[in-house]
C-alpha cells in the first residue's frame, strides 16, 4: 500500500478544509538520495517501483536555485530576479491590503483565531467562504463553472509518484484534467510532472510546501507561488496562470500577491473529502457517499444553470482509485466532464504564446489540443469573459514574465503505450 511509503504521519485537525497536511508533509523523498538512474515507465503499476527515487539531471542541476523541498518557501538570497519582482510587489502591497493581518493557524485550522466573520473585512474564505472581495479591483475567485451540467475535472497535490494507473485510465478515456501541482512534488517527481503535460492535462499551482497561505508573510506567500511557477516552467516548459490555495485558505492579501504573479484563484463548489479516508473515522464508504451527494444534486437539477468544480486529490492510491471507480457515475450524472481551462474557455492558460488549449465547444466535440491563436489574442485566466461566448473572444495576455535565467528542464518525453489497470 502507498501508505507504507510514508515517512511520518500526524493527526489532522478537525478544522482543516481541503487536503490534509499529514498526507502532504509525509511525502517520500523523490529526487533525494540515493539517486538512481531509471527511465519513466508508464506501464509500471507497482507502487514501490514507481516511487523509487531517481536522478533526473536537468532538475538535479538546478536544485540549488530553489528552496528546500517541503520547507516553507522564502526568497533565496542569491535570487536577484525574485528579489526585484517582490520589491515591485511591495511598492503597492502595503497600500492595497496593508490592513489585512497575517492569520494564526495550522493545517487550515483557525479555530482559535478571532476574526469578525460578520464584517469579513478580508474576504477570508476559510472563515466565511467569501469568494468576491468588496474591493472590485481585486478579482473574484473561480469556484464554479459557467457551463451547466458540467463536472470540472481536476486533482490537487500532484504529481504523485504512483499515478500511472490513474493517468493510464484517463488516457484510455481520452479525458484531460486540471492538475494543481505542489512545487516540491514537481522537483521530487519531474518525470511524472512531464507526463501530465505530455498527456494534455492543464497545469496549475498548489504552492511550494502546501502551507496555509494566510499564515505566511508577504514574502513567504510570494515565494510559495513564485518558486512553484518556476519549478513547473523548468520541468515542463510552461508557466501556469492559475492556482489553488491549500485548504482553500485565501484572503485579499493573498489574492493581491497571486494576482501580481498573474495567477487566477480557483476554489471549488463541491468536496469529496477523499483525502480524509482513514482519519477521523472517515471510511471508503464515507467518501463514496460524498460523491453521491454531488450526484444527487445533479439529479435534483442543481447544476442546470452552472457547473460544479469538484475537489479531488492525486494524493494517494485510495483517492485516485475512488476517481476511477466513480468515473462511470460522473458520466451518468453530468453531461460534460472537462478540465477547468476548457470549461472557462481559457484557450491560453499559460504565459507562453505558443501554448493553447481547447475551448469548451472544442473539448466537448472531441478536440484535445488547442487551435491557432493570433498573437495577443485568446481567453486567459483572469479575463472577465467566461462561458461559451468567450470561446471566440480575445483578450490581451498581461502575464508578468519572470526575468529568471533558469534553463528549462523540459525535454523530449515519449510515453510508450497505455495500460488501464486498477490501483494497488
UniProtKB/TrEMBL annotation:
Residues 149-349 form the NodB homology domain. Its main location: membrane. It comes from the Eukaryota. Its EC number is 3.5.1.41. Pfam families: Polysacc_deac_1. Keywords: Carbohydrate metabolism, Cell membrane, Cell wall, Cell wall biogenesis/degradation, Chitin degradation, Cobalt, Glycoprotein, GPI-anchor, Hydrolase, Lipoprotein, Membrane, Metal-binding, Polysaccharide degradation, Secreted, Signal. Residues 1-16 form the signal peptide. SUPFAM superfamilies: Glycoside hydrolase/deacetylase. GO terms for biological process: cell wall organization; chitin catabolic process; fungal-type cell wall biogenesis; polysaccharide catabolic process. It catalyses: [(1->4)-N-acetyl-beta-D-glucosaminyl](n) + n H2O = chitosan + n acetate. Gene3D superfamilies: Glycoside hydrolase/deacetylase. It is found in: Cell membrane; Secreted, Cell wall. Its cofactor is Co(2+). It is an enzyme of class 3 (hydrolase). Residues 380-404 have a biased composition (Low complexity). Belongs to the polysaccharide deacetylase family. PANTHER family: CHITIN DEACETYLASE, GLYCOSYL TRANSFERASE-RELATED. This is chitin deacetylase.
